[in-house]
Amino acid sequence: MGAHPSDLPAPLQPSQPNPPHLAELDRLGDQIAELSAHLEAATARLLALIREFDAREGWANGFRSCAEWLAWRVSLDLGAARERVRVARALGALPVLAEALAQGELSYAKVRALTRIATPEMEVRLLAVGRAGTAAHVESIVRGWRRFDGLAEAREATRQHAGRALHVHQNEDGTVVLRGLLTPEVGALLLRALDAARETLYQQRRANEAVLLATDPAAEAPTRPQQQADALALLAETALHQELDPGAPGERYQVVVHVDAGLLAEAATLGQSVLEEGARVSAETSRRLACDASRVVMRHDGDGRVVEVGARTRTIPPALRRALQHRDKACRFPGCKVRIAEGHHVRHWAHGGPTKLSNLALLCRRHHRAVHEEGYQVERLPDGVLQFRRPDGRPLPDLPAPAVVPADPAGTLQAQNAAQGLKLHARTGLAEWYGERLDVRWAIDVLHPRARREMGPSPQPDRPSS
Predict the structure, then answer these.
(1) Which of 27, 235, 395, 464 is deepest in the core (most CB within 10 A)?
(2) 3-class DSSP state for residue 8?
């Protein structure tokens, strides 16, 4: 689709006609500019589709994010895929910038930069920035904007840190009053610790409270503030008991699961599958953990007493793990390239599967869980290729089917845009720049909501004369 003469702004008429070869180059340049505008309009539609797909979690069929799915499905670099998703989400709240991209007035490069700082209140002013300058100008203003925001955030963080305090005083009756102000990250740490301590305390007490309430209906369960106070006491006792030493990393992060051998082999079998603290986990979770873990076999007599404790062994010996890591390099789930992965028995060792390289595959924690607890299946075909299947049995190929491309993709794109009512031409996305020097500080002073009250006045740059 070519542009109609009535749609084009009147060009500057040269004093002398251009030589034929220069006129041909001008036409070629116009074709490049016009097709670029069509591509920007198509990019707006693409981002709208990505936004809808992401909101409806169409990627949640074994992938951890929409970006990972895009990297697999359309072969984008993962960093570029993340940026596409970020821009798509941002444009959902920025209709003015989204419309400018859809009309081909702003390039994706400009919109991508502006969405890093744009808010619904500021997008009209930022649209003027995008129209007036080149992509390099827009990037410069965005960097200056973010530097200003960074300085403001640093000043705020310094203020919060300087204001941190914890006041403790004891009343005449011996009760202690606490009043404090913590920085956000320390406050989050305290809240997380209180939640963990409260859960630990009241997991142990719920059964006793149920018995107490059954025998004494007047008894009341502790209120949340009372539970918080009990949790803080537990934190203090634990810290003193550990002499403020959190322990070695291996001890701090070790999770112990007690599981019956029969339960590992058959989910329908009755038996225990519990954490050290007594919380039950599913049999499939135990199988996943047992794929690649330290294992201690304990034998019990008929009364449940331990009669034999074997030596601790690795499910996958170190030498075999090195060979597995060398062969697979990263998670083998289609589209996933996470390098920190766990060894998975394609046929579980509790079902008679051998612990050898041909029966092992690397899976990241997310996809290891997907295979064990979420219904995904994996098998090794006779030719050695791993075949993954969705929970409904449909195969999940390593590489998606290629998209169908029309014989004339540019013509098809132009026709689609014309059907949308878009009138795109060689000057649709042309910046309104006269060649003057960009003064980033002056631009931030004019545009940033906080600049006038937080930064000193700066001289205005020379403006081009009309």
Answers:
(1) 235
(2) coil
d(CA 406, CA 392): 32
Spell 266-279 as b/e; 16+ CB within 10 A means b. eeeeeeebeeeeee
Taking a C-beta distance cutoff of 8 angstroms, is the pair 315, 349 a contact? yes
Spatial CA neighbour of 458 closest among 431, 439, 437: 439
Angle between helices 365-373 and 283-291 (to 10 degrees): 140
Sequential DSSP letters for 296-340 = --EEE-TTS-EEEEPPPEESS-HHHHHHHHHHH-S--STT---SS
The angle formed by the CA atoms of residues 373, 379 and 384, to the nearest 5 degrees, is 145
| CA 372 – CA 381 distance, rounded (Å) | 19
CA distance 242 to 64: 38
Separation of alpha carbons 295 and 78, rounded Å: 37
3-state secondary structure of 93: coil
pLDDT digits (tens, 9 = 90+) for 387-422: 999 888 888 887 777 777 677 777 888 888 888 888
User: By mean pLDDT, which of 95-109, 144-158, 297-311, 403-417 is the weakest?
Assistant: 297-311
DSSP H helical ranges for 177-309: 184-215, 224-241, 249-252, 261-265, 283-291
Predicted model pTM: 0.57
CB 309 within 8 A of CB 327: no
